[in-house]
Amino acid sequence: MRLSRYFLPVLKETPAEAQIVSHRLMLRAGMIKQASAGIYSWLPLGYRVLNRIQEIIHQEQERAGHIPLLMPTIQGADLWRESGRYDAYGEEMLRIKDRQGRDMLFSPTAEELITDIFRSYVRSYKDVPLTLYQIQWKFRDEIRPRFGVMRGREFLMKDGYNFDLTKEDALHAYNRHLVSYLRTYERMGLKAIPMRADGGPIGGDYTHEFLVLAETGESEVFYDSAVTDLTFGDRVINYDSVEECQGVLEEFTSRYARTDETHDEAVFDGIPEERRRVARGIEVGQIFYFGTKYSDALGATVQDAEGNKVPVHMGSHGIGVSRLLGALIEANHDDKGIIWPEGVTPFHCGIVNLKQGDAAADAACENLYDQLKTAGLEPLYDDRDERAGAKFATMDLIGLPWRITVGPRGLKNGVVELTSRRTGESVELAPEAAVQQITEIYRKHP
Ligand code: ATP
Ligand code: MG
After folding, report:
1. Strand pairing of 276-291 and 219-224?
2. Average pLDDT, stretch 51-74?
3. What is the pLDDT of residues 79-106, one digit of tens each?
4. For residue 342, is it within any domain?
5. Claim to verify: residue 99 and residue 155 sit in the same structural domain
6. Which contiguous run of DSSP H or E holds residue 394?
7. Going by CA atoms, what residue is nearest to atom 4 of ligand 1?
8. Pairing state of beta strands 207-213 and 379-382?
9. CATH code (residue 412)
10. Spatial distance between the Cα atoms of 237 and 253, rounded to a whole number of angstroms
11. Which of 323, 325, 328, 330 to mutate to test the pocket of ligand 1 (most atoms within 8 A of CB)?
């Protein structure tokens, strides 16, 4: 993309309404624009990151054997009456009437609709296990939408639902989700710690929230600092293996890590003092096993091997897709702007032409631009007729991990400059070598 032809409405001033850094930077970098309270337009740069996050989620869900579909945002009230949640959900549910006066709603989650799909088609135990998921907009009429996309009213969520014959199978689905979520967040360059959470009205011990540690997080968390040393890395896991998934779950959840709802001071005090941590976190996902709650309410049964009709065991799993942009920025920024991890960056690298109009500089930039694209990368070329300082400020603000700076002086010696946004370190090298180095870096981030 050429910046001169792109739509990147960056702001010079810090918007007064933004209280936390991620919100400020998303507005300043021209990623989002508020349409109404808690409802945002995704401007091109923000939209690119949102798409990268979705790609990673889809790839990791596919790896785990989960199947994507898409359900409507606007749903009829009848199914929700069947489950009892039409009344129970309360004020957070946006209720709408159509022209016939029928009750409709904007889906805050989709257990009812997915269970209806399941019960309409699936009859036999041979058709489970089955896990279906979508990435779709949700609406919750939050009392206090704030912090930009962190707590929106309209927000993008990956929501998945597993259907299994037995509790045992459903717990395997639970563990499988835990593993796939660990991989998903790590690929985005985020450390999200699974913490024992509260099942709320659903109850039970089987729920974990994934939290990104950040001072601006809305949740208070308590953990053994040893949990922050765990990384999943690039290990390959057989998602069909009950033992392997269980093993990962044990590795990542046996140390103390809880939200305030499940915090137990007595157990916490048993941890050596130097490892006890009280901090704040951003909830970027949650997984549940809730048994037959919805299959009982909506009559989702299958015939088992003996011919008995039994309700399926279910769980649900969510990732806060749009919230993740906020969490990523909270965890990756400095006073100049955003620092995108390679896995989610909107463009792979920036090209800054120090002297637009200089024949040699222009030609070298065009060349780099073509070569990077030929290598399968997406560069952002700042070809505007602007001062070098303004170009650097824009690049630093929007946070591309790598920048190639091209100027007449360097070109005389056959070199350009490659700069890391994270460390600020620069090296001079031949243009071809810069392309090669960047290509190499992104080989690890498909
Ligand atoms: P919270 O406790 O933050 O209100 P929740 O527990 O009600 O969230 P879930 O039903 O678990 O949310 O939804 C799955 C994920 O969707 C959450 O882990 C979170 O990342 C995201 N999410 C929930 N509500 C919002 C919101 N208002 N704005 C943005 N993301 C949200
Ligand atoms: Mg939650």
Report:
1. antiparallel
2. 98
3. 999 999 999 999 999 999 999 999 999 9
4. no
5. yes
6. helix 388-398
7. 151
8. unpaired
9. 3.40.50.800
10. 17
11. 323
